[in-house]
Design a protein that fits this description.
Radius of gyration: 17 Å
Order of helices and strands: EHEEHEHEHHHH
Strand content: 15-25%
Oligomer: single chain
Distance between the termini: 19 Å
Number of helices: 7
Strand order of the largest sheet: 3-2-1-4-5
Shape: globular
Length: about 200
């Protein structure tokens, strides 16, 4: 019954993407029983200070794939309230499921402020809440991972050693829209197994 899954994502811009892809990645190790306990993770920018990045709001839906990618400058209550007013009527019209206006997002405070809640309630939307610190229950997180891998793969295959910020933005948005609908559908359908 979920019409769409929504989340914001930042993609880091590098002038030399090939060098960035080939460098060794760091890892954060946790104890086996630690999981995502309180205090283990926190919402914050993972790009560091002074890093140029592309911030996008992305929406996926079963049977439709990626239905919206919108670039934004700053995620706050004002932006998200405006987003709801501009995009929700169209998103619900395109992704109707049994007449319900059910949607999923993470627990970002900007997306749950009073003005944003009022805006989506005015649209008749019903938020399906997922527990805090449970990104594995929102399939859009898997889509972001697939997009990042596809961007890295394209970088290596095309040997992209120099790229403008505008070209980078276009490439990320194109990559998101090009994720096959079947892949997104399988990702959404796998959620019930993950819950079990």
């Amino acid at each position: 019954d979920v019409c769409f899954y929504l989340d914001a994502k930042s993609f880091k811009y590098k002038r030399n993407p090939l060098a960035s892809v080939k460098c060794t990645r760091s890892r954060v190790w946790r104890k086996k029983n630690e999981g995502l306990m309180k205090g283990c993770t926190a919402k914050a920018s993972k790009c560091g200070t002074g890093t140029k990045k592309l911030d996008v709001m992305v929406c996926i839906s079963h049977g439709k794939g990626v239905c919206l990618v919108e670039k934004f400058n700053k995620m706050n209550g004002s932006y998200f309230t405006s987003f709801v007013g501009r995009q929700f009527p169209k998103l619900f019209a395109e992704n109707q499921k049994r007449g319900r206006k059910l949607w999923i997002q993470d627990n970002c405070p900007s997306q749950n402020c009073k003005s944003a809640r009022l805006a989506w309630e005015t649209e008749g939307a019903e938020l399906l809440k997922i527990p805090a610190r449970s990104p594995d229950l929102n399939p859009i997180e898997n889509v972001f991972h697939l997009a990042a891998r596809a961007i890295d793969k394209e970088t290596v295959e095309q040997c992209i050693t120099k790229e403008s910020y505008e070209d980078f933005c276009s490439r990320v948005i194109r990559t998101l829209y090009n994720i096959p609908v079947e892949v997104i559908d399988r990702t959404i359908e796998s959620v019930d197994k993950r819950i079990s």
